[in-house]
């Protein structure tokens, strides 16, 4: 141990020498691990954002409750009161015919002109009910039983579909992360092996002088760590820039998508990538070392 | 400190490099191994370093059996040896000083002052002015002195030098032999191989074995 501490300076110098002696191949290794980690960062970001969106949509589970047209304002208010006390209902709001028409206009956008062909407003007013997602089915059943309710339109279909998509995303994400993990291990292992191969004469000399395997291997471990961590840092910088760019592109045309705050996403991704690169660096180095022994 | 009984070494290709060797070396011995090239001198040194194992017989160096499955013990043994390899095996891209320090870095007995000890030893082989030169910029003779410094700086129990006289002229060869034997003391044995038998004829108080075709013959002391 005392020996080890005394030799730290030596290990660092050896690491520098090894890095310099194979500078070109080391730069390529750094770039390729960087790119792999960048892909990983983008997959994780996509995963993160999509699960955030799903969560946000699920939180705002909204249904439209239509009532009998014959009801007057007082009865509608009473109906809203009855809805409000149903367990699991978060918010109740009346959407009048005019607003319903406007919403459709917004949805149609530049095609809204078709609405002018209609003689009078074809839209009915309805009650918008926000409910707790987890209790969706239970609440729907309850609301159906409330007197005065004609029929209900819910977005369960849409939610199901989004959930399916997010499940596929998760699966894809897991697959890609696994693939990236394995390729990083292989690349790092290979780099270490190459380093050992290139320096095999020196390594043999050290063995003949009685050096401990760990003493011999430590600079190579450091090289592996530096290259992977370097790749991680490179990927973090690229990912931060990419996220910034994508956010800037999305902010204008898609203002209603509930993206996580940019700083949270970037710092989260940076932490994940650096952490992963450190872990993969260690594992890959050990892997490369043990496979390079004799 | 070295005890060989009936040691044979047969290489995987079938070459019998050493045949039924008996040998005993005690601390403070100075042993010359002579013989034509191909007679088995390097093979014998390889056995002492644990680079090869006897295919027959038993060999102990500093109490350590040289055999398969003794990796850890052999590693410790190597720390107690001061090898000067025929091709020196210096680490390229490093200075003479760094190479000499490497002889001590990982010894359990080392406690600081590596640099002072290394410079002191370089001075002893007459090379302190080249301490900070990269070894690839040194001449053959200078490299040899760095290799000797790396071997002796660790205060080994056995100094082993393979063909240190190489192609040197008589004057330089005698100088190198004198330098190596100057590290002999009552606890340190020195073993030197050379094919230049005429160089050691005048030496007093040394052991000398002559090898030919894997057999050893005692020249000094004479065996009956
Ligand atoms: N690794 C090896 N494999 C097979 N034969 C070898 C090997 N090393 C040496 N030899 C053979 O063993 C014999 C002794 O070689 P060596 O010990 O190098 O002799 P010396 O050092 O006296 O010149 C020679 O015939 C040589 O060709
Ligand atoms: Mg030889």
Using brief descriptors, characterize the structure shown:
A: 294 residues; alpha+beta; Alpha-Beta Plaits; 2 domains; elongated; B: 224 residues; alpha/beta; four-stranded antiparallel beta sheet; 6 helices; 26% strand; binds adenosine-5'-diphosphate; binds magnesium ion
Number of strands of chain B: 10
N/C terminus separation of chain A:
26 Å
Number of strands of chain A: 4
Euclidean distance between termini CA atoms of chain B? 23 Å
Q: Can you list the strand order of the major beta sheet of chain A?
A: 2-3-1-4
Helix content of chain B: 25-40%
Which strand-content bin applies to the residues of chain A?
A: 5-15%
Helix-strand string of chain A: HHHEHEHEHEHHHH
Please, how many domains of chain A? 2
Bound molecules: adenosine-5'-diphosphate, magnesium ion
Number of distinct helices of chain A: 10
Radius of gyration of chain B: 17 Å
Structural class of chain A: alpha+beta
Low-confidence spans of chain B: none
Q: Describe the main β-sheet of chain A briefly.
A: 4 strands, antiparallel
Radius of gyration of chain A: 30 Å
Q: What string gives the helices and strands of chain B in order?
A: EEEHEEHEHHHEHEEE
* Average predicted local confidence, pLDDT of chain B: 92
């Amino acid at each position: 141990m005392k020996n080890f501490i005394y030799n730290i300076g030596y290990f660092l110098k050896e690491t520098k020498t090894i890095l310099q002696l194979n500078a070109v191949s080391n730069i390529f290794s750094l770039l390729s691990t960087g790119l792999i980690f960048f892909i990983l960062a983008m997959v994780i970001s996509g995963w993160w954002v999509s699960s955030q969106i799903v969560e946000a949509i699920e939180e705002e589970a909204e249904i439209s409750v239509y009532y009998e047209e014959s009801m007057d304002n007082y009865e509608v208010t009473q109906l809203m009161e009855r809805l409000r006390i149903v367990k699991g209902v978060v918010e109740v709001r009346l959407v009048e015919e005019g607003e319903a028409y406007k919403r459709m206009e917004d949805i149609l956008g530049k095609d809204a002109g078709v609405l002018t062909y209609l003689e009078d407003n074809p839209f009915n007013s309805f009650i918008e009910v926000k409910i707790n997602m987890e209790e969706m089915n239970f609440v729907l059943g309850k609301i159906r039983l409330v007197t005065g309710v004609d029929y209900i339109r819910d977005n369960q279909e849409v939610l199901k579909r989004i959930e399916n998509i997010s499940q596929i995303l998760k699966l894809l994400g897991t697959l890609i992360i696994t693939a990236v993990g394995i390729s990083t291990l292989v690349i790092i292992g290979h780099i270490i092996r190459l380093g050992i191969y290139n320096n095999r004469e020196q390594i043999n000399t050290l063995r003949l002088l009685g050096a401990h395997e760990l003493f011999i291997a430590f600079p190579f471990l450091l090289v592996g760590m530096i290259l992977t961590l370097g790749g991680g840092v490179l990927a973090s910088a690229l990912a931060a820039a990419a996220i910034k760019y994508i956010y800037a592109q999305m902010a204008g045309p898609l203002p209603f998508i509930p993206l996580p705050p940019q700083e949270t996403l970037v710092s989260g991704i940076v932490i994940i990538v650096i952490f992963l690169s450190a872990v993969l660096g260690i594992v890959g180095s050990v892997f490369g070392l043990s496979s390079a022994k004799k | 400190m070295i005890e060989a009984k009936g040691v044979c070494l047969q290489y995987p290709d079938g070459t019998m490099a050493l045949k039924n060797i008996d040998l005993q070396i005690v601390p403070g011995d100075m042993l010359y191994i002579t013989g034509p090239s191909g007679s088995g001198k390097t093979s014998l040194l390889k056995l002492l370093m644990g680079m090869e194992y006897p295919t027959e017989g038993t060999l102990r160096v500093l109490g350590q059996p040289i055999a398969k499955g003794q990796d850890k013990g052999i590693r410790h043994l190597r720390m107690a040896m001061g090898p000067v390899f025929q091709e020196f095996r210096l680490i390229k891209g490093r200075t003479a000083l760094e190479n000499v320090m490497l002889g001590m870095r990982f010894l359990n007995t080392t406690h600081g002052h590596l640099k002072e000890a290394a410079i002191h030893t370089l001075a002893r082989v007459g090379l302190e002015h080249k301490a900070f030169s990269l070894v690839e910029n040194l001449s053959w003779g200078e490299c040899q002195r760095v290799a000797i410094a790396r071997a002796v700086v660790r205060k080994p129990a056995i100094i082993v030098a393979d063909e240190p006289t190489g192609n040197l002229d008589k004057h330089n060869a005698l100088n190198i032999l004198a330098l190596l034997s100057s590290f002999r003391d009552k606890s340190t044995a020195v073993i030197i191989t050379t094919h230049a038998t005429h160089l050691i004829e005048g030496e007093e108080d040394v052991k000398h074995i002559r090898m030919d075709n894997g057999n050893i013959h005692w020249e000094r002391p004479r065996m009956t």
